[in-house]
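Sorry to interrupt, but I need a hand with the structure work. Leave the record below and I will have a look:
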Amino acid sequence: MRPLSFLERSLERVFERSSARIFRAPIHRVVVERRLERAMEERRGRSGGRVVVPDAFVVELRPGDLDVLAAEAGGPSELAEALADSALAFARAHGYTMRRLPTVTLVPDPDAPAGDARVAVIDGEAGRGSPGSPASPRPAAADRTRVFEVPRSAAVLASLEVREPAGRARRIAVGDVPVVLGRDPGCDIVLADARVSRRHARIAPRGGYLVLSDLGSTNGTFLREERVTEVTLGAGDVVFLGDTTVTVGGPPAATAAGGG
């Protein structure tokens, strides 16, 4: 980290904590989002030429602060979803990779700082078990931990260019319904590739992005040169299933959705 950047972040932490203590200002969601971003930045690592950041977090808040934020978001599960989506958007905007969709565990803690949040990384290859900022929370007791799953979001449109071993290329539109790729005739996108499993992978919209999930395939699913089990996709990403490539593009102008 550059010396100036370190100084700026240190001053930011001091100012935010002091303001919260002196003025007792109500917490704002952006404060929690910045804590999540800082945890990702501080615990990022490299793998296969990509920058990998954590994907699971514990967020400790005072009960009153948690209630306020949850009410503003429409409920605790909606708050957890919004925070997870914010973390995912930050990672994508900076070209970072998350090995799984981010999850957020919200923990009410009377000892958490007023108007602030404590964030810790609890999972992920980058920083497994490592603390975030501004402080590392104690392990959350089971009777006061609330974990909220992030549901699938509404419509996302993108185009997929599917190129099979014989060289035949198809352009397929995907919308708000998941599509399964594989050799099985019942798949949404049927692939003529002997190295592809019968039900090889699934692509589904979630959190404003396309999410690729391997379905336990024999030969694996690869994003660039790294084998993945679940990963978010962006325009320009190239996925390898056996000898088939799937290139992600933007929303198609006029392409009919469907499989082969």
